[in-house]
């Protein structure tokens, strides 16, 4: 039987991050009390953009450098214990977990990808959810990946078997649902899993991860050579809507795909290029050719004694050269979570989100009104071009 939680307060782990920030603002609009956990010295919150109503706690739920035993004394002191988590979460109805390494990063030297992602996305998160349950939190929401969704509906592709990050995301969902002990109706805690696709948009004081892990890689090429697949995409506002609606209507054990439009990579890439004034455009490459590039990346990472979360030798065939489309099931999620009751529509326009992302990657190319400055028209970005290193490269 469907149950609606009367949400009066929510605590967001990762509340000053991209997804947590938008979710926090959306909860405030619903009149919900919001507390967040943020990394020490992560960003400056006193410049007018951060909502003053939000209670901010500082500390590390985990630290990426812990596995290599490289923590400073200050970092070690800032690690939050299980008992401290329990005290932090007391008095809150709902917990949102929006923390963890991205699938585009690789493990530290000497650590397997599976061990790295498992510690950050399962071991550490299970402890946090256990603490939330002990504190009396009624519902906990974890922001997972749509790779887990595709692993579930396409078992013949063996995604979890071939890609450590996907395996860990599948394990994360199952482990956290187990923590719920049958849900709040059975004396436990409701656990809801949201499976997220490509997300676009921007926030203050953040350079989108897209720049470092995607755009910078194509800076030295005459075109953006990329596979011919596609994916579901969403504006970050749509993620916030899903998080808020799930707090009220998500049911224990739900694994819900969240997304908006199914789009080809060609559309995404060309919109980015056009926005920042580039002349280069998308150039589709066949799967076999893209796979050669993936193998080179895999070998480069191996030379560093590291491992990627996604297997680059299979990435192009398994993921990038096909269409990861699921708009119909995402629409079912919006219905299941009663978006219409909140006046939600799935988030902002996807193209607007892509443009916002592009502008945030190269903010020095735009004036105070968001218009491209004339001198940047027709100029392709150089590698590592940033707001503080905005060397002007004249078009030829």
Question: Quick summary of this structure?
Answer:
This protein has 396 residues and is of the alpha/beta class. It has helices at 18-29, 73-78, 82-89, 113-135, 146-153, 159-162, 164-179, 209-213, 236-249, 265-275, 287-303, 312-320, 327-336, 339-342, 350-361; strands at residues 9-13, 33-38, 55-58, 94-97, 139-145, 190-196, 198-200, 224-226, 230-235, 255-257, 261-264, 282-284, 323-324.
Provide structural commentary.
With 396 residues, this protein is an alpha/beta fold. It has a single domain, classed as 3-Layer(aba) Sandwich (Rossmann fold). Helices cover 40% and strands 14% of the residues. It has helices at residues 18-29, 73-78, 82-89, 113-135, 146-153, 159-162, 164-179, 209-213, 236-249, 265-275, 287-303, 312-320, 327-336, 339-342, 350-361, and strands spanning 9-13, 33-38, 55-58, 94-97, 139-145, 190-196, 198-200, 224-226, 230-235, 255-257, 261-264, 282-284, 323-324. The chain has a 7-stranded parallel beta sheet, sandwiched between helices. Helix 4 (113-135) links the parallel strand 4 (94-97) and strand 5. Helix 1 (18-29) packs across helix 9 (236-249), helix 10 (265-275) crosses helix 15 (350-361) and helix 11 (287-303) packs antiparallel against helix 12 (312-320). The longest helix has 23 residues, at 113-135. It starts with 8 loop residues before the first strand and ends in a 35-residue tail after the last helix.
